[in-house]
Design brief:
The structure holds 2 protein chains of 2 kinds. Chain A is built from 11 helices and 14 strands. By secondary structure, chain A is α+β, with helices and mostly antiparallel strands. Chain A has 2 domains: about 180 residues, no CATH class; about 180 residues, no CATH class. The relative contact order of chain A is 0.19. In chain B, a hairpin with a 2-residue loop joins strand 9 and strand 10. Chain B is globular. The chains are: A alpha+beta, B alpha/beta. At the A-B interface, helix 1, helix 8 and helix 9 of A face helix 1, helix 2 and helix 4 of B.
Chain lengths: ~375, ~220
């Protein structure tokens, strides 16, 4: 017979009270777990979408002029000095502190070419990098080797070419290795070809017009990465493509704060439920506590019995609360993460341990006043029989 | 050394006009190994007296010495320790915990003692054996009769081998035959050297004692 045996015995006897305490903590803990898991899953979902989004940093030559294009509409007749970046300088990106977060760097050389009497823009790119930077590209045919070209959908239509067709650019005949499906972007009107070959055709060896960078966003602040790349490419203007990201992140930030607020509120209600139930239990056990006193139990022994009971129930609520919250998140995630694509909930040992500790802390804190009250009960009042 | 020495014990409940004085300057001594009955009408103050002797109810004025220790001068924890080591209680309503087995109920006073479970269990079974209930050690209080419950209460009171047993009408809820059995057990404990103080209404059971303290209106009439 130990104080623990008394605590367990009492829990067995007063199952209803124990259930109320359990329910109070369970609701609180599972809500916190569900909300935190949802926020985490939604963050992962956004990060995943950002990765799918492809490039999120643009590197263009530094210029004192502003671009006279807006929404794809170019105001012709104005010619700018065309500055370029040295291709070799891009290697410096690998030296930035957040280099590990760089998924791909895609250099691009651009230049106007004339094909069959029509003026088009030719883009020399690194197709390996573009697989990461343009994950949405659907190529009918295949990516070009040296001597080949990939046509945007609109360019192919204008030139009347399909896979296997031939075109001559600056005196060199190229084979159309593939045609892109419509992307709805500027890519539709371009002729894509391997970087080195294009540089040679355009007479821009070792130079590039711009570069795109795909940075993985999990734990990498894009603005900081922009600063880091700017530092290693002093001749370039580095910009983050972040309007969409920012908007979604802000919304998520609001949701996160709201979640913390709701979690706090639910925990408060749960702890009040524990407090009221434990106080009721103490009142119900007045005689029993009187017996303990008569048997020579100290006030601290009574406190230990009550806190042990709270700890047992709270520990159970912590485990069940995590599982319930985890299950609820699994059910809810499709509603919050646009069909749930890319968002998934996995067992998180840190969150599980956190839920356990949180439940214990709330359970013990809410039971401390009833325990203290019990320890201060006048044994003579308690034992009216005497 | 006196086992118990009460000096001018007064106990008032409440304040002002509603104040009630339950004991009015009671003094007495009890020797080691003595068996004392406390008798009196309901509301006479005998239960208050027992609770004060049991160190559960601080007197308003006066001093209580147990084995030369001024118990109410002790701190709360020290008094609890003193109670555990020196006093065994037998209640009229048995006051067994319904969710613990008989053996566990008897082990209750040992719950805060740093002994191995097996040791505690052996002591509890020995105490139950003394009251003839060792074979029912695994039962719950609700599964035995009133007389048996009172015997368990006695086993619980003696399991720690305290020198003093305080019994509050231990036969009050029992039939005559069972009451006599209980008194026989209490008598045996006294014969083994335990000091017994027993509150009773029944003159037949009071006669088991060496001495009777009569309480009337908070005053002791020897």
């Amino acid at each position: 017979m130990t104080l623990g045996d008394i605590a367990i015995g009492n829990l067995r006897r007063r199952k209803g009270k124990a259930f109320f305490v359990l329910a109070g903590l369970l609701i609180g803990v599972s809500t916190v777990v569900a909300l935190l898991s949802l926020v985490t899953a939604m963050k992962e979902d956004i990060n995943h979408k950002l990765e799918m989004y492809g490039a999120n940093v643009l590197i263009v030559p530094k210029t004192e002029n502003l671009s006279l294009t807006y929404g794809g509409l170019s105001l012709g007749g104005v010619s700018f000095e065309m500055r370029e970046i040295k291709e070799e300088e891009l290697a410096n990106i690998a030296k930035i502190p957040n280099a590990n977060n760089v998924a791909a760097v895609g250099p691009m050389v651009l230049g106007p070419v004339t094909v069959g009497g029509r003026q088009l823009l030719m883009a020399g790119v690194d197709f390996q990098a573009f697989r990461v930077l343009r994950p949405w590209w659907v190529v009918k045919g295949q990516e070009p080797d040296d001597g080949g070209a990939l046509l945007g959908a609109e360019a192919a239509r204008l030139l009347g070419l399909a896979t296997g067709g031939r075109l001559t650019i600056n005196g060199r005949e190229l084979t159309v290795s593939g045609v892109l499906d419509v992307t709805g972007s500027q890519d539709d009107g371009l002729i894509f070809a391997p970087l080195a070959m294009t540089q040679e055709l355009l007479g821009k060896e070792g130079r590039i017009s711009m570069a795109e960078v795909a940075a993985l966003c999990s734990g990498c602040p894009i603005p900081e990465m922009v600063q880091q790349i700017s530092a290693v490419l002093p001749g370039a203007n580095v910009m983050a493509i972040q309007q969409v990201v920012k908007g979604r992140m802000e919304t998520l930030g609001h949701f996160e704060k709201f979640s913390y607020g709701i979690s706090g509120l639910v925990l408060l209600v749960g702890s009040l439920m524990v407090l009221v139930t434990m106080m009721g239990s103490v009142r119900e056990r007045t005689v029993e506590i009187g017996i303990f006193s008569a048997m020579g139990f100290r006030g601290s022994h009574v406190i230990r019995i009550i806190l042990m009971e709270a700890a047992i129930v709270a520990g159970l609520a912590g485990v069940l609360g995590y599982l319930l919250g985890f299950g609820a998140t699994k059910l809810l995630i499709p509603l919050f993460a646009e069909g749930g694509h890319g968002a998934h909930v996995a067992f998180d040992p840190i969150l599980a341990a956190g839920a356990f500790v949180l439940s214990l802390v709330v359970g013990l804190a809410a039971s401390s006043y009833p325990a203290f009250t019990a320890s201060r009960l006048d044994p003579n009042e308690a034992l009216r029989a005497l | 050394m006196k086992r118990i020495q009460a000096e001018g014990i007064e106990k008032r409940y409440g304040t002002g006009d509603t104040a009630v004085t339950a004991l009015k300057g009671v003094s007495f001594t009890i020797e080691p190994g003595e068996f004392v009955s406390v008798m009196g009408e309901s509301g006479s103050g005998k239960s208050t007296l027992l609770s004060i002797v049991g160190t559960l109810n601080r007197p308003t004025t006066g001093r209580l010495m147990v084995d030369d220790v001024d118990v109410y001068a002790l701190g709360q924890d020290a008094r609890a320790d003193f109670r555990r080591e020196s006093i065994g209680f037998v209640f009229q309503n048995f006051n067994l915990l319904p969710y613990l087995t008989l053996a566990e109920n008897v082990m209750l006073p040992l719950a805060t003692v740093g002994e191995k479970k097996a040791q505690k269990r052996a002591k509890a079974l020995a105490a139950l054996e003394r009251v003839g209930l060792a074979r029912k050690a695994g039962r719950l209080p609700g599964q035995i009769s009133g007389g048996e419950q009172e015997r368990v209460a006695i086993a619980r009171a003696i399991v720690g081998r305290p020198p003093i047993i305080l019994a509050d009408e231990p036969t009050g809820n029992l039939d005559s035959k069972t009451g006599k059995e209980i008194m026989a057990i209490i008598n045996t404990l006294n014969a083994e050297g335990m000091t017994i103080i027993m509150v009773t209404h029944n003159p037949e059971y009071a006669a088991y004692a060496n001495r009777v303290l009569r309480v009337a209106d908070g005053i002791l009439a020897h």
